[in-house]
């Protein structure tokens, strides 16, 4: 699998990297051997390649080459993974890596095959890493057969004698080939200096690797941006209030916990040379500065900007998992959409669900280029999440967010249906669609594996939250006569549930009230739903691996799964394309006048009629998705057509387009549009 990225001009050069083989990899399973494959990334450029997977071996042979475009400051990371374990959790299956910085690349190219020692991904990892990988780097005009296998220890030696390199025949493990860039710096006197090539020796190898990561992290997502350079001496300790974190792709960023501001810039490194003279001065909190894409500079992103970038990374990771051939074909009738979808989806393998989604409604001729699938998910969610089916219930009588029904066991197959619901949620996220239904925020926290707190109860059951807060803040000795036992209604029967063993005989006192509140909150959200939630989570993770969710919080996951529920008319107007009409045309004016007259429900129905979904992407209307495989988003389009004015407006959901005849008056357009939105359904081929 490859992502060659954009071919870059200027100072970049074309290098052919050949991955020949690996030797003596670590055996981490007692009973079976790994299935190794190598992954090559040019850090920050978007170029990514993977070799074939070799089955059951500690000495895989690939002999595959890739043409890379390398800039002056670029580095190459070659990592080896066990294909059997990569989908289990983040970092699983890692067998070792080598990172070649720019100075090492210039010294290694056109020198034949090199045997490089594999290293840990992070110095603090406890995984056992051993073995070597054999590679060669050749410039465009020197592409040939590669040459002999040599040890890289001489290449890193500053006293390397002139002449050809020799084949490594000595015993022992060769040294790691990681070299520091020649980086200009300014010392306290203003004199310029430069970096140096240093030999990496064990046992100080881990310390050296950590220094390299701090000085060369160069985090760039979806764009090639200049890298922050270290100036002078830097402290290994982060300033107070900062945390160092890592994205799912292994890129390092820094979070200021008090303000929620994140930055790619290492706060230990001054932003300009003048700050070096004030080494005792506290580093300022980064401010929100917009990104100037024209100059290619990366500034401090806010959490909202981070969400868009994290979503891009998620979409990229999911795209790598999608098979290049085949389709996930689903054919259902509108009348039996729930049961027929359940039978077809549950008989498929997870990898089949990742293929290009093609949905067809029986007895309808419409072709699915995205719009039919969105309509299918919209209709299916109305049935699947309907509390009358007993799988879900409203959190309270006056708050219509959904939670798992603890009494769903009245349906003996309920766990299979929750597995199906999880698959549908994962299917929607994987293919870039949205679920038309809102769950409670604690549900999304559970999906992320995060603990539930008392504060989470406020959005779900405000009255209960208020009561529990009062218990914590007041002396309950003279006023509260409770035990560690609660009651709930199960289909008209009052059932008592103990919060801990023999809880009905344990009174709640001033000393144990905090334990009571903690157990009550846990019972409120987990009462009788453990098995149901695990079945749902299993279905969801079959399409969306759990480690890809770690960068997100519960509110971000809610937006990713459900999109934006509220429709912003101003944003809708600003991101609408007009075809065969202008903003001054009567049809356009009357259309927006009708939209403003509609209530929120009818606006959602109109949006669903035209696009197939009543939800808006988290980036707004500018990110509406159109036909499957389109190069980018398709804006909402108003198309004035030459047709009989007695005809109803017609929607093309795959292209987010509504065709409107030239109606004579606002009243007629309002009547025809309302009829089309509320009284019509079905697809046809035009």
The largest beta-sheet arranges its strands as 1-4-3-6-7
Main sheet?
Answer: 5 strands, antiparallel
The number of distinct β-strands equals 25
Overall shape: globular
SSE inventory with pairings:
Elements: E1 2-3, E2 13-23, E3 36-42, E4 47-50, E5 61-70, E6 76-82, E7 94-100, H1 102-108, E8 113-117, E9 132-139, E10 149-151, E11 185-186, E12 192-193, H2 205-215, E13 242-246, E14 252-256, E15 261-263, H3 303-321, E16 327-332, H4 337-346, H5 350-353, E17 356-361, H6 371-384, E18 392-396, E19 399-404, H7 414-430, H8 441-448, H9 462-473, E20 485-490, E21 493-498, H10 513-526, H11 530-541, H12 554-562, H13 569-574, E22 576-579, H14 586-597, H15 600-611, E23 636-640, E24 650-652, E25 657-660, H16 666-679
Parallel strand pairs: 8-10, 16-17, 22-23, 23-25
Antiparallel strand pairs: 1-4, 2-5, 2-9, 3-4, 3-6, 6-7, 8-9, 11-12, 13-14, 14-15, 18-19, 20-21, 24-25
